[in-house]
Amino acid sequence: MPEKAFMKGNEALAEAAIRAGCRYFFGYPITPQSEIPHYMAKHLPRYGGVYLQSESEVAAINMVHGASGAGARVLTSSSGPGISLKSEGISFLAGAELPAVIANIMRGGPGLGNTQPSQADYHQATRGGGHGDYKTIVLAPYSVQEVVDLTYKAFHLADNYRTPVIILGDGFLGQMMEPVELPQMIEPEDLPSKPWATVGKGRRTRNIVTSLCLPPEENDALNRKLQKKYNLISEKETLVETYLLEDADYIIAAFGITARIALAAVDLARKEGIKAGLVRPITLWPFPEKELAKSAENAKGILTVELNMGQMVDDVRLAVSGKAPVKFYGVTGGLFPTPKDILTEIKKLEVAVNG
Amino acid sequence: MKQEITLAGFGGQGILFTGQLLGRAGMLEEKNVCYVPSYGPEMRGGMSSCSVIISGSNITCPLVTEPSSAIAFNHASAEQLEQALKPGGILIINSSLTDKEPQRKDIKFYKITASDRAVKLGNDRVANMVLLGALVKITGILKPDSLIKVLESILPERKHHLLPVNKMALEEGISAVEALEI
Fold first, then answer.
1. Confidence band of B46 (pLDDT split at 50, 70, 90)
2. Is the pLDDT of residue B43 over 90?
3. What is the domain-level CATH number for residue A113?
4. How many beta-carbon pairs under 8 angstroms link A with B?
5. Which CATH class is domain B2-181?
6. B168: which of A51, B41, B81, B117 is 20 to 30 A away, CA to CA?
């Protein structure tokens, strides 16, 4: 029988990381994710782990670089402004092919913005965020249970592909509490060994962990290797959930907490005889473009709903490629659309399509 | 069976604790629950609120914009919550701290002198339990016993001497509603 608990999204993320064998956390507090460092500070020492509040976000991400290079499962977390500071380090992790899990519990931006929920870091997360040709796997949970499941999975993906993985949540998800089933504890010593890690060379040839690659041919080769890896991830790791798509005329595309509201909107629409459905990308990168393209074939219109001014809608348009009209609806600043608001937008789309 | 409950009052009145208690009790009864606090740069005495959804079926939208029941711990929140309630909704007010009268005709309005009753029981801090007693009596959403079981499990041993007064407060809220309904 799995262990059950009533937890905040932020606490659940931290607990799932510990259970995934993560024993190192480096970070700096920022609302609305501070319960993650709080939880780690309280619990990691009990497992012989290290919690360290760094002097800055830049320091934290480079501590992550060090711990990952030495083969450890390691977590850092922040929100918008802190992730911007960490972006240089995330690029270095990608270049050095180091696994790490980075949680961004999004808040209002740009700049300092506010501390309320937002999804305005979609572009930052799915386009890498830092400099250079790289991608990070981006996981977008929509319930506290999924925060647990995806965090647990994130460490596996990071190790398996030697790549940084972003968990993209928002302040609402971080603060809300729901019952969760917790997965089994993984002991770090039971994890597969990492022959590339810099743990003291002994008699073998030395391992080098670096993103510095001066000769043009070698840098080109690194980039081609990375792209090959990203293609493999796209092929194998894309996750998407759909709801009532089979006969849907109007499709809502939404991720994270917004998808929960959209689900209620689909039910409202169905009650009024409007055939609505939902596509919810769980991996934002790789984006489920095939599922979107397929669903668009029989749809009359697609409505993308986000807590930003229109970011995922770019990926929806690319995937749908003109097969159906794509409209956007979003609010920012910590405001939320209600299911009724979304229903109103579906009706507007219906009118626009049918004239 | 579904209740969307909003609680609001002064920071320091135990609003968030009371909401979590409801959520945990719902979980104990194997219902679907979702608890959402307001958060932000607040200070003691400022406004505090949270929402709890308790449902027999899957919870989709976790946002509560039109609560089916609400508890107002002070005057300012009573005004706000009355406006937010859905038609036919239930508003319970702590009438020790507000003399508010209902404006809307399409809601059910309950005045509970929660703080006075808590003081009579010897601890003004159990006003929240009096109000919770009223809520579970009116809505039937949870068994009172579940709330006590949760308190037992989350309070540290050194605070277990407070369990009897909390239980009395809960019963006080239940009987206050019974007296209104006779």
1. confident
2. no
3. 3.40.50.970
4. 52
5. alpha beta
6. B81
A45 plus A28 within the same structural domain: yes
Please report how the helices A312-320 and A289-296 are oriented relative to each other, as an axis angle in degrees rounded to 10: 60
Residue contact A175–B41, C-beta within 8 A: no
Q: Which A residues in the span 13-52 are in contact with B, Cβ-Cβ below 8 Å?
A: 31-32
* Residues A164, A98 share a domain: yes
Give pLDDT tens digits for B64-119.
Answer: 999 999 999 999 999 999 999 999 999 999 999 999 999 999 999 999 999 999 99
Neighboring chain A residues of B40 at a CB cutoff of 8 Å: 115-116
Enumerate the domain spans of chain B. Answer: 2-181
ipTM of the complex: 0.96
A61 and A136 assigned to the same domain: yes
Q: Which of A219, A237, A255 is the last residue of a domain?
A: A237
Average pLDDT of span A132-158: 98
pTM as predicted: 0.96
Q: Residues A78, A194: one domain?
A: yes
Domain total in chain A? 2
* Per-residue pLDDT reduced to its tens digit, A281-327: 999 999 999 999 999 999 999 999 999 999 999 999 999 999 999 99
Domain that holds residue A258: 241-354
Tell whether A339 lies on the interface with B, counting CB pairs under 8 A. yes
Tell me how far apart the alpha carbons of residues A261 and A305 are, in angstroms, rounded to a whole number: 10
pLDDT over threshold 70, residue A1: no
Domain with residue A284: its CATH number is: 3.40.50.920
Say yes or no: A219 contacts chain B, CB-CB below 8 A: no
A267/A214 same-domain check: no
CB A20 within 8 A of CB A155: yes
Q: Which of A212, A237, A262 is the last residue of a domain?
A: A237
Counted residue by residue, chain A has a size of 355
- Residues in chain A with CB shorter than 8 Å from the CB of B61 are 260-261, 263-264, 338-339
3 state SS of B142: coil
Decide if A263 and B39 are in contact by the 8 Å CB cutoff. Answer: no
**A194 and A319, same domain (yes or no):** no
B 22-81 residues with CB below 8 A of A?
23-24, 27, 32-37, 39-41, 60-63, 65
Chain B residue with Cα closest to A177: B35
> From the list A116, A176, A267, which residue is nearest B62 (CB)?
A176
Q: Give the pairing of strands A276-281 and A250-253.
A: parallel
Closest CB from B40, B62, B65 relative to A260: B62
Give the bridge partners for B48, in sequence order. Answer: B9
